[in-house]
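Amino acid chain
________________
===
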Amino acid sequence: MNKVLVLGGTMLFGKRLVRQLIEQGTEVTIATRGMTPDPFGSSVRRVKLERQDRESVVQALNEGEWDVVYDQTCYSPQELADVLELLKGRVGRYVFTSTMAVYPHGEGLTESAYDPWQEQYVLGKPRQAYAGVQGYQEAKRHAEAFLLQQTAVPAAAVRFPLVIGPDDYTNRLRFYVDKVKNQTPIALPDPDARLSFISSEESADFLGWTGRSEWTGPMNASSEGHISHRELMKLVESKTGREGGFTDSPDSPDRSPYGFAGSWTIDASKAAKLGFSFRKLRDYLPELLESYL
């Protein structure tokens, strides 16, 4: 990769990815709304765009060619369609950041649990039309479907689970630490539901690897192993020295940001067979929890 366009790149694993690309000597362009400062100085070229405004996208990306495009800011299939149409013939590979939310709830989900080639995608809807978890799921499913059903650009869809790290601005994992420290019960439907995670560092590594690879289609990327809410609670208790608890009250103001209807874990063995080595979740999770104390 000599020239790369990153749609996003100023937060969480996107920032880590850009830093890696710069260190590798890649010519990087980042395309954002220009609202979040970045630390890259003169090491990147910056263009300003608003994904929901097609004219803004045209003005920002009407010139240039890139070996790889990383799309981390797409929240509707129309946004993806606008970019692909504009970049036709000017990009060698497209890497789309997707999510395990394309799957129904379940454990050990493989890529075959959602087939984007069978999806009847719908264009023309703004991102505001995709509200809540179900809306997010539909948006990512339809974006994947549009991307992978087109044949003009080789494309990969990376399906990440829940991303955690010291740079996680959502503070969803920190929520558990704070509630246990205050001995506030956490509200969720099933404490024994299991979840998959990946670190922001590993997410960036995987995206970089994907950009250098030739595989196409969807692929799961997840740290090795998964954990239940109850197991996570015990781990937090061991770090804080305090006892936490759960409640199933639907009216509680302390509902878990991970309080999904059931387990959500994915199988990343396909990527592992292609040569990517994932870290074990339990090797880095304790240290991350300690950083929140």
